[in-house]
Design goal:
Blueprint: E1 5-9, E2 27-28, E3 31-32, H1 33-44, E4 47-52, H2 56-63, E5 68-71, H3 78-83, E6 94-99, H4 107-120, E7 124-130, E8 139-142, E9 148-152, E10 166-175, H5 176-182, H6 199-206, E11 211-216, H7 228-248, E12 252-253, E13 259-261, E14 266-267, E15 272-273, E16 277-280, E17 284-285, E18 290-291, E19 295-298, E20 301-302, E21 307-308, E22 311-314, E23 317-318, E24 323-324, E25 328-330, E26 335-336, E27 341-344, E28 346-349, E29 352-353, E30 358-361, E31 364-366, E32 368-370, E33 375-376, E34 381-383, E35 393-395, E36 400-401, E37 406-408, E38 411-413, E39 418-419, E40 424-425, E41 434-435, H8 447-457
Parallel strand pairs: 1-4, 1-6, 4-5, 7-11, 12-15, 13-16, 14-17, 15-18, 16-19, 17-20, 18-21, 19-22, 20-23, 21-24, 22-25, 23-26, 24-27, 25-28, 26-29, 27-30, 28-31, 29-32, 30-33, 32-35, 33-36, 34-37, 35-38, 36-39, 37-40, 39-41
Antiparallel strand pairs: 2-3, 6-10, 7-10, 8-9
Helix pairs in contact: 1-4
The structure holds uridine-diphosphate-N-acetylglucosamine (UD1) and calcium ion.
Length: 458
């Protein structure tokens, strides 16, 4: 079978998005619309050509050199966009044409379209759908015998045609022989000053070639995103698909409607996700975890049996059995070791915490390397910044850092050392020693009572 090529039209500015970002870079479930389209396209074709235009550099930068780009310098419509690819397409075979703003068309749908096109031997096959509310889409006009006659854009519909429910999804299969011959002949639409790809259908029919329509049964997948309201509709559908897939694979979700998981996030079996949990980017979660309510993890690797509630974790690792939150903030570059406890109102930045250590309440730990079985008391602070530079702190195995102590970095607290509560530590503490650094306590007998009495008399 001949090599199958996909051309993806992605040059439009997306005026209706009202954005400085090219439309196809707007994201749903963490990835740009065009990413979703390319994923489906790459699953069914050997080569993908992307037609870029508005924000071409941004699009190229995101997707890299793995793809072949052609720039449509003047945006003269979808037909003109596809014309850019003609010199780069072989003389025979077939091409799949997709719109960069239809992110829900999954590979199965494209496979079906290609299969149907090959079987029928048509010169062109349009993927169509039936919508309750077809407004905004091009409509399929059929002749008396039910054959496809042409596609008419919403703007040009006769009043009686407005009721037609069969729409053009903007996805097509073309026989390359026919495309090479007829695409250059597209007329310019005088109202819009554009070359409509949809007009090619009529050209082919007029030339006596066969054009078929393949109906997409699940009309929801046809959604073309032109504005941010449609973007949110597409995202909701994509989210449902992701969540359903994960639940079928053994993940429990207490409320999938309030669970937000990016495309590509992996989660192991028997993990339970509570409401208002957001898992973003390159996050990977192990088995038997409990995440949420209110866990927000970005680019984070989570081991097995981890508990994380009401917390934000960015670019970090939570190893097996770690227990995070409520109300912890773990910032990039942190490694929370096995069975570590990170409690309420604790911030950890770029630090590693060894197995079984506890940072249970109200602490800040930055640029530190904390060994196993360390106890960081309530309110203990790693003073990593001197106003100019960040410095490192090392705390050895089994050390005990008393409540409300300040460890002024750079500093080294030896194994098994004991730092008394309220100490400000500015020099290294040797292993197994006790450090106490706070003013001596003064007690004046009876003075408290006298003081309070005077206050009352006033
Ligand atoms: C298009 C179809 C319409 C169909 C709908 C499906 C045409 C004329 N109309 O309308 O029949 O129902 O999609 O969603 O084809 N693009 C370019 N260069 C251009 C113009 C557009 O690359 O000069 C790209 C856009 O980036 C977009 C795609 O083509 O990804 C479709 O363009 P858009 O303006 O969104 O077309 P619609 O009005 O939605
Ligand atoms: Ca569109």
């Amino acid at each position: 079978m001949e090599e199958l090529i996909a051309v993806i039209l992605a040059a439009g500015e997306g005026t209706r998005m009202r954005s400085s970002l090219p439309k196809v870079l707007h994201r749903l479930c963490g990835k740009p619309m065009l990413w979703h389209v390319l994923k489906s396209a790459a699953a069914v074709t050997a080569r993908q050509i992307i037609i870029t235009g508005y924000g071409a550099d941004q699009v190229r930068e995101y997707f890299g050199e793995e793809f072949f780009y052609l720039e449509q310098r003047e945006r003269l419509g979808t037909g003109h966009a596809l014309q850019q690819s003609l010199p780069h397409l072989p003389e025979t075979g077939l091409v799949l044409v997709l719109c960069g703003d239809a992110p829900l068309l999954e590979k199965e749908v494209l496979q079906e379209l290609i299969f149907y096109h090959r079987q029928s031997g048509a010169s062109a096959t349009v993927l169509t759908s039936r919508l309750q509310d077809p407004s905004g889409y091009g409509r399929i006009i059929r002749d008396k015998s039910g054959g496809v006659q042409k596609i008419v854009e919403e703007l040009h519909l006769a009043p009686e045609e407005k009721a037609l429910k069969e729409i053009n999804t903007g996805t097509y299969c073309f026989d390359l022989g026919a495309l090479k011959k007829y695409l250059p002949l597209l007329p310019k639409n005088e109202v819009k000053g554009e070359y409509y790809l949809t007009d090619l259908v009529h050209l082919l029919v007029e030339a006596g070639l066969s054009v078929k329509a393949h109906l997409l049964k699940d009309a929801r997948l046809a959604l073309g995103v032109n504005d941010r309201s449609q973007l949110s509709q597409a995202a909701a559908l994509m989210r449902k698909k992701i969540n359903d897939g994960l639940m079928r694979a053994g993940v429990t979700m207490i409320d999938p409607l309030s669970t937000y998981i990016d495309a590509g996030v992996e989660i192991g079996v028997d993990t339970v996700i509570y409401p208002q949990t957001v898992l973003e980017g390159e996050t990977k979660v192990g088995k038997g975890c409990r995440l949420g309510p209110g866990a927000h993890l970005i680019d984070t690797r989570v081991g097995d049996g981890v508990l994380c509630r009401h917390s934000l974790v960015l670019g970090s690792v939570l190893e097996d059995g770690a227990n995070v939150g409520p109300y912890a903030h773990i910032r990039p570059g942190s490694k929370i070791g096995p069975s570590v406890k990170i409690g309420d109102f604790v911030e950890i930045k770029n630090s590693s915490i060894g197995q079984g250590s506890k940072v249970s309440h109200l602490s800040y730990v930055g640029d530190a390397e904390i060994g196993p079985d360390v106890n960081m008391g309530a309110g203990s602070i790693v003073v990593n910044y001197d106003g100019r530079k960040k410095h490192k702190t090392v705390i050895g195995k089994g050390a005990f850092i008393g409540c409300n102590s300040n460890l002024v970095a750079p500093i080294n607290i030896g194994k098994g050392a004991f730092v008394a509560a309220g100490s400000t530590v500015t020099r290294d503490v040797p292993s197994d020693s006790l450090l106490i650094s706070r003013p001596e306590q003064i007690v004046k007998k009876g003075l408290g009572k006298r003081f309070l009495k005077k206050k009352k008399e006033k």
